[in-house]
Amino acid sequence: MSRASRLPFSVPHGLTAAGSLCALILALPIAVVAGSVFVGGTGETWAHLLATVLPEFLANTGWLVLGTGLGVAAIGVSCAWLTAMTEFPGRRVFEWALVLPMAFPAYVLAYVYTDLLQFVGPVQSGLRAFFGWTRADYWFPDVRSVGGACAMFSLVLYPYVYLLARTAFLARAGSLAEAARAAGLGPWQTFRRVSLPLARPAVVAGVGLALMEALADFGTVSYFAVQTFTTGIFRAWFSLGDRLAAAQLAAALLACVALILVLEQRSRGRARHAAGPRARPGERAPLRGLRALAAWLTCLVPLTGGFLLPGALLLRMAFREGDAQFGPRYLELMRNSVVLAAVTAVCAVLLAVLLAYAARLAQSRLPRLLNRLVGLGYALPGSVIAVGVLIPVTQLDHALAAALGALTGHTPGLLLTGGISALVYAYLVRYLTVALGSVESGLARVTPSMDEAARSLGCSQGATLARVHWPLLRGSLLTAGLLVFVDVMKELPATLVMRPFNFDTLATQAYTLASDERLAEAATASLAIVAAGLLPVILLSRRISRS
Asked: What is the pTM of this model?
């Protein structure tokens, strides 16, 4: 018996050790936030929050999770099934166009619909002019509410469910649905009894991603004056000046995210590796008459509400008024946003490959647990991530400055804090989950027998990754990079807190103008955000269409 086989633990592979180290570094800000639970000293601030606003935070956050979850599931699953399993006029356009709302940040949608639906907006003004009503003569739903926030999130986040559910329908349910139809089951029975159960893990994964994005949002709930954990964190930090209370509120939010992740992992069950060759897609069921019209409207409504209508309204506001600073200033803002998004996307894809492959090679559960811990960062508000990043980065900065001062006799000051590198680090902590989920899904389709075959031919771990997995993962890597790029383009809170001095992005410009109620001027920056995010979304859509 060899010495290695007698060890009570397995010696980690080189890639596994490197992946675990990177995961620990990325999980450090989350650990800082979670560790705040065990630190006392919040005093009257925490007691005040418990006695006054914490119940409202819990209630609003719960309603937000419920409403958004139901909304993205209903829109994403219905559109995915219709475009994957049925044939109706316009299906080929809808199958890629339904991804376009991902280019819109939820807070931009909130600005647009507030301008459209407020009392002095065109909709209510038109109703009063047409019917001769006054304020007391009619009731109109308030868009700046919990329900309005759920609607905004549903319209821009349903593509997460749509992408994963459509892939599941095409990959696993095609031939089985065809057999069900041959057995006499109608379209609705086929969907309910065959397609949906097979796609359930993908649907739950998409809903989980959407819920984490909604929980972490600040711009939308803040602008709508909806008090959630996220706005409470900002209030405790900026208004009350108690960062420890803010971190403890964030820890409570982190517990909600951990619960969502656990439920999502359990929902996947044992469906990790493909049991064999990919299922043959069956023929699409043709829809005619009223059914075709219903399918067409089902796909058109979310596309119109999440992209076409707000895009047209932004164009109208931008060309009629717009931002007076439009010109060279916007080229600088665009450059800053694109460079940050591109650098973060490349780093996220490389790290996601390392972490996912390290967990695949690992003989223990530790790398997988570390990856799940890293995944918690996706649901934390960017400002909380900023706090978790600033504390260790500032300490490292001071240590480096002291060491360089001892060596050279000159103190260089803070090298990392307030720089681009710290901001990219915060983005990676926040958005690595998006890339990691896509890469893990791609690796799950590579059966372990392929790894064993490569090793039997003498390939090392690195050679197996480069020559076997990498070519098979190219589609997943492209998807991961595009998703991270779009998310970073839209990111707001961490950028507001951690950006270098005199360094602005399109997101900070839009937020600054909208917070001053200069919605028409904010339309220019908002439109630029959408335009910059539209190209990668279109590339993603074309890839979906080709697949």
From this structure: 0.78
